[in-house]
Amino acid sequence: MASIWRYILAGLGLAVLLVGIVAAVYLMLPQPTPGPDISRSKSTANRLFEASFEPERGVIRQGELQSWLLTLKTAAGAPVEGAAITVSGGMPQHDHGLPTSPQATDYLGDGRYRIDGIKFTMSGWWQLRFGISAAAGSDSVVFNIVL
Amino acid sequence: MRRLTSVACLLALAALALLGGCGEPQFSDAEKKTIASLALNTLPSLKADTTNQYADMPAAAALGSTLFFDAGMSRDGTVSCSTCHKIERQFQDDLPQAVGVGHTNRRTMPLAGVARNPWFFWDGRRDSLWAQALTPLENPLEQAGNRAAFAHYMQKRFGERYERIFGPLPDLSNVPANASPLGSDAEKAAWNSMSAAQQDDVNLVYANIGKAIAAFERSIEPQQTRFDRFAIDLATGAKPEADAAFSAEEILGLKLFIGKANCVTCHNGPRFTDNAFHNTGVPPVDELPLDRGRVDAVTQVQADPFNCLGKFRDGDESACRELRFMVKDGPQIARAYKTPSLRGAADRPPYMHAGQFETLDEVVAHYSKAPLAVEGVSEVHPLDLSERERAALVAFLRTLSD
Questions:
Q1: CB-based contact (8 Å) between A99 and chain B?
Q2: Are A20 and A45 in the same domain?
Q3: In CATH, what number is assigned to the domain containing residue A134?
């Protein structure tokens, strides 16, 4: 009888050891850091507008000049027309700005603005910040893009 | 008791085998992805250059090649592009600063893959390969010529070849022998005495010289290296054989390059460059004139009559987005220089825009220490690499040359 207990005890001991080793190995693996909010649609800082931001051709290609679409709606859902838009940004973890100076180049109707001249030169966490002035007032929004 | 120990031993062995089997694969999936993105086989085929309608015309490239190697394309007939861009030396000259008619302030850049650049020179003060070629031709320290003399020279030496490619040469009979808006006082005066139509004629011939040279330079492409063979094997799961196999030191160097040492943030893609400008705190050379890098180049490229928005561009303005959307100011462009490709770097010291470092060891030591920049803010932060790690990085860089 006593010997069975010994087996169980030894088994338990080994199991604990194994779990410990596995945990140690797991902890040593590079941890996926909890990323920034990468949603492509959000309210602007003071909730004046609903903004969404998408690559015009659907895909992001590192190292190429690309145009994106910034779509602006009022909180009530009406398209925002005639907005003046400023663009800035950079890589928060490398404390450097954007490698290009993107601009709002065209209004495509329906609250959609073409933001041209965007280039992501490296993988990692990028931020694009838009200052938006329209009839409803001025507000800003930051989009995080992780490549 | 004996049974207990043997069972325990068995279990322990099984645990070890398990750990050994799954522990430490050579590269994580993320690392594999990065390595694959650096391999030469991911280099896309060369895009058309719509600003140069002769870019892919063989006759233009042939004329461009002649001009590239022709010392007649200089004031005193002694300097050609190939004086500094030596074909047998990766199109550079192994000097800290190039020497043409005079001693210049920058290091000659190698030309492999150059047609893929959005910007030219260490500071990017030209925006096309053809506009770039016009700069050394008139630089008093390089070829020291002037555009009127080049137009006459084209007519005299290459008239027929020129006309077969570009159409009839303009009437140059009343154009002064030496004239340029950038030359000596006498050349400037001669230029100002010309009619606007004559100036346009000469500028057009001059632009076409650049376009022919650019057509030639498009054929200069990077070569496959040991690293590329290793990367392909890694991607396909084949066991790297013979020289494609990396030593433990080279593997450590590669891991550092794409990991802890952050090199790949700027030296990325199959050419190991992001084509962008960065301040990396490389110290200036004392004896040379003030060099502020990109910040001064912005005005120069905007003022260049041969830039993409100027009238010598072929095709439409949609090709000019790099110029249109470039960063024009801000602290990040002070003493910022273009990230150079690292392919072949191990075989062509010295390094940096004015040959500041003589060896790769010095380069890596610079990144490890990351001194403050003399102007602006360096983007590199101290890495504090051990001696072993520094040597491993250098060993890896060598695999881009073998």
A1: yes
A2: no
A3: 2.60.40.1940
Question: Is 90 exceeded by the pLDDT of residue B17?
Answer: no
Looking at the fold, whether B230 and B190 belong to one and the same domain comes out as no
Within a domain: residue B142? yes
Interface of B with A (CB under 8 A): 4, 7-8, 11-12, 15, 19, 23, 28, 34, 264-266, 268-269, 274-278, 321-322, 324-328, 330, 332, 377, 379
**Are B193 and B259 in the same domain?**
no
pLDDT digits (tens, 9 = 90+) for A137-146: 999 999 999 9
Q: Is residue B115 part of a domain?
A: yes
C-alpha closest to that of B38 among B186, B257, B250, B190:
B257
Of A18, A117, A124, the CB nearest to B325: A117
Say yes or no: B118 and B34 in one domain.
no
Both structure tokens of B328? 């024009």
Which H or E run contains A113?
strand A112-118
| Predicted confidence (pLDDT) per residue in A24-72, tens digit | 655 555 555 567 899 999 999 999 999 999 999 999 999 999 999 999 9
Size of interface A-B (CB pairs under 8 A): 71
pLDDT per position as a tens digit, A80-130: 999 999 999 999 888 788 999 999 999 999 999 999 999 999 989 999 999
Amino acid present at A43: S
Q: Which domain holds residue B98?
A: 58-217
Helix (H, G, I), strand (E, B) or coil at A18: helix
- CB distance B15–A6 less than 8 Å? no
How far apart CA A88 and CA A16 sit, in angstroms, is 53
